[in-house]
Amino acid sequence: MAAAERGSVISVDGVSTQASAPILPNLRRHIPALDGMRGFAAIGVVFFHYKTGHHFNHAWLNLITWIMGLGWMGVPLFFALSGFLITGILHDSFSKANWWRKFYLKRSFRIFPLYYLTLALILAADVGVGRMKAAGQTLWIYALYLQNLPSLYHRLSEFPSYLSTVHLWSLAVEEQFYLIWPIPLFLAWRRSRALQLCAIVFMLSFMARIACVALHCPMIVYFSFSPLRIGELCAGGFLALALRQGDALTRMISNVAPYIAGASILALSGVIFWAGTEDRTAPMISIGLTALSCLAVCLIYYCLHPGPLQRLFSNRILRWFGKISYGLYVYHMLFRPVYIRIVNRYLPHSSHGLQYLALISIAFTLSPLLAAASFYTYESYFLHIKERVSALGESRVAS
């Protein structure tokens, strides 16, 4: 998944330290729990993509695969966290000169290097195995971040690449958000309507999903089309802006958060356990995704002040996975065909259960190693440049 701002940095004006107000940290500092939440979401997505629909003879193995199937919830959590961080960063920069230049430069140095390296690997693999048509017909779609458009999906499925690209749709959703969101947010900010903008977009996205369910739109529209998924990003953005409105609204959020979280868990559980067993798409897209967005916002809020969730997500292991989450998201599916070929070569006649365990063992070992190598030897170079751009912008403002 495209990484949100690495140093989970936000700011808030006028937060009281009185005992009656929620206790929040210095929100201009790095918040480790948000890194851990990103790592948790990344692990969940890896689990989901390596689940299997095969029924095993062992109940414990079936239970594991069912739990792995819930990992899809990591993507909405990613989206909400990205919306929270990016909207907060934008809001805090609007009063500064050349805010837009600095924002787009920093986003480019964080996202583009790994993404276009991935496209280079896809191109090299397609050329190496003789799939030149796939490279020629589809690479430009990925290069322009258009792979989530339903009108182009038939081309992507008609000319599949050697390496897996099915998960790259979420990167397109985030990049389109980063590209477009600053402008309407800035215009709304100037009129003191930024909070309302987030709420309106969230509701419009929800209604668009309802309309697509009613019209029986193709599955690709439900899961990857930006207008239907941007609500999750704006839910996080709403929280980021609400915390900047002062004590009264912050205190109200503290009071209603437990009820919102409880209602979201009940609604989500109902969709998972009691919705029709034949097709859960309609309730999951309409009710489930909305409930999950609200729950994600509550989780983010509780990570901002001391408590069990902050301690959980501040775990060193989860924070490390959060640090490498961008590469982990990209590589875990990109090389899935390679992992499968390794299993088929060395365990060709083994049982399906053994092959499956071998596959997830390989994927869960090599993918984090590849992501770590990518982060520490490649991405970190561009992250240093990004930080220099940030420091240069601050020094110019100070002068």
Automatic annotation (TrEMBL):
Keywords: Membrane, Transmembrane, Transmembrane helix. GO terms for biological process: polysaccharide biosynthetic process. The keyword Membrane applies. One of its GO terms (molecular function) is acyltransferase activity, transferring groups other than amino-acyl groups. InterPro entries: Acyl_transf_3_dom, Acyltransferase_3. The chain crosses the membrane at residues 63-90, 111-130, 166-187, 194-216, 222-244, 256-276, 282-304, 324-342, 354-378. Residues 32-370 form the Acyltransferase domain. One of its GO terms (cellular component) is membrane. PANTHER family: ACETYLTRANSFERASE, ACYL_TRANSF_3 DOMAIN-CONTAINING PROTEIN. This is Peptidoglycan/LPS O-acetylase OafA/YrhL. It comes from Acidipila rosea.
